[in-house]
Amino acid sequence: MEISRSLDTVTIKGNIKSISDYQKIKETIDAILQTPNQKRVHIKIPDSISMTSSVIGYLSKLVNDGIKIELEVGNPELIELLDDLRLTELFNVKKVSHY
Fold it and tell me: Global pTM?
């Protein structure tokens, strides 16, 4: 998994599958949220087929804390997973066909 950041946007390429992936994602998003009055994080996931429960839990906690999450997802399997877990509305999931 590769992760990059630009302002309030995080781009995650590859599959999200390990604890170290979770730690990288958390560190990157936490760095964005260090900006005063930052209440929004835009996350682009063009190709991962899944998301670990630790990442889902972390994003859910952020929403609970008043942070707006916006997910752009490219893989239909991940969209289906988020939909099955009833997270599409909570994470403001948008399907994108290509980046």
Answer: 0.93
